[in-house]
Amino acid sequence: MVLRHPDRDQIRIEGVLAALGNPVRMAAVRVLDGGGEHNCSSVLGILGVTAKSTMTHHWRVLRESGVIWQQPSGRENLLTLRREDLDARYPGLLDAILAGALRDEASQAAQHVGPSGG
Fold first, then answer.
1. Which residues pair with 71 in a beta bridge?
2. How far apart are CA 10 and CA 31, in angstroms?
3. At 10, is the secondary structure helix, strand, or coil?
4. Fewer CB within 10 A of the terminal residue: the chain, N end or C end?
5. pLDDT of residue 22
6. Are 37 and 79 in contact (CB under 8 A)?
């Protein structure tokens, strides 16, 4: 199977923002931002997703928008964040989006805890 990946100069801001606008895809990108290659199953486990079919669409959106590399390896696909390409096209964008996601998560967690601590 040949997977479509855009060249660096074909990556478009609207595609990247649309891909990262979904909470499941954003969570997957946060996992991949730790560096290295990850197989799909390991990312699914971290995200708590049990069905591979649930993620097929998300991987395609991330791949075709230029956010990730997805390379077949045996019966699995290896995923890598295209940080170098994204940083070259849109310097600071990925860092700002990931930092914003962390702030949103912390804010949401604080709202659930509330002032009484529980």
1. 78
2. 24
3. helix
4. N
5. 92
6. yes
What range does the domain containing 93 cover? 8-99
| Number of compact structural domains in the chain | 1
Helices (H), the chain: 13-20, 23-32, 40-47, 52-65, 83-89, 93-113
Q: What is the mean pLDDT of each run of 10 residues along the chain (118 residues)?
A: 87 97 92 91 79 83 96 90 98 96 85 64
Whether the model clears a pTM of 0.90, i.e. scores above it, the answer is no
User: Tell me, what's the pLDDT at 31?
Assistant: 92
Q: Is 12 helix (H, G, I), strand (E, B) or coil?
A: coil
CATH number of the domain that 72 lies in? 1.10.10.10
| 9: DSSP letter | G
